[in-house]
Amino acid sequence: MKKDKRHIGQILIDAGLINEDQLKEALNNGQPLSRALVQMGLLTETQIATELSKEIKIPFVDLSEYEINHHAATKISEDLARRYNLVPIDFEEDRLVVAMLDPSNIFAIDDLRIITGNEINVVIATETDIKNAISEIYKLETQVDDAVEGVDSDVGEEGEEEQIEIGKEKGSPVVKMIDSILVESARQRANDIHIEPQEDGVRIRYRVDGVLHDVTFVPKKMQAAIVSRIKIMAHMDIAERRVPQDGRFGLKVDRKQIDFRVASLPTVHGEKLVLRLLEKESIMIDLNKLGLEKNALSMLTDSLKRPYGAVLVTGPTGCGKTTTLYGALRTLNDITKNLITVEDPVEYKLPGVNQVQINTRAGLSFAAGLRSILRHDPDIVMIGEIRDYETAKISIESALTGHLVLSTLHTNDAAAALARLTEMKVEPFLAASAIECVVAQRLARRL
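-> structure tokens emitted (447 positions)
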């Protein structure tokens, strides 16, 4: 660190960590004092950084234990991070929190302020932790560069895209790059990955806590390889680029099973892909941990105890409606009850629950599935989503004839649920009689 060596040494002596003779030996080592003391085995980097933190009253952060905000980290380039031995790690309101080896480097702080447009809050971290963090954060950029080198031919006209072959071997650069994108999205707890063809390249973004963040931008010649690789993983038709397609695949990340739902969309610049992440463990959350207010939670649990009626969960796409339904099923799952679900897709296999996967190609819609399961003596029925009049009609009738029905609706608030059912031609007096509880929810960002 760019402090007077003897001053740092005196701090360490006053702390009782080294003595005068050890300080002299380290100063004669020909290396920066901190590095010399570590190499001599007298102190650790953490001990030195902690004492310096106390002296200059700047917080010390152990980056090995810190969950770095990827959006903050990628506000600067890898070259800048390595040049100044620093890494942005988080935001505090509009200020960027930066871990530095040398917090006295005002030139680095000024450059960061100009480049990012943020005011800077400085914390201290060890050199090893900073270098490890930089390597991990910018690993994807390195893999993009490697993948670009591995693709020799540019993408020409749209009709030529299918001529490009991606690497078939497991360790090919393209495969490694895509695997890294998928793994990193799961580690950042992203809800969606957006792969968006542009005129001059492909933009890749993650949606984290409801907000889209840029991850990387890859050259146009990588477009066909990226799209083909993901479509193969999702068992989609790679030759068909004119119509939207859907697919899915699973991946284990850090011992957690993640399901990816893939949707393609033809655009003027090529196929756009959106991958929705579904973490099976997070779906099976207890109702008490959903963040509901005490009064709202009490109303919901009381409604679930009733032998019949409808409990509806509303909110926009991606707000956690399915998670709430699974939490309710987990509460209701009992050996004395017959639970049947109709889902598209079945996101988590529940022991003791009869789950039906919708298959529209085979004629098994929500309405058809619901009609069938009512002949199987259910106590509790869960319908993934009420989408049309027939499903709504059967759901309401089931709730009125001795079944507890759980489902979701796409409305912005609880009151709009009744209006939505009325729009589907369900008689208002029937809906009012059948519905026991409507839960309106949003996905809130973590603080």
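The chain has three domains: 1-54, 138-281, 284-440.
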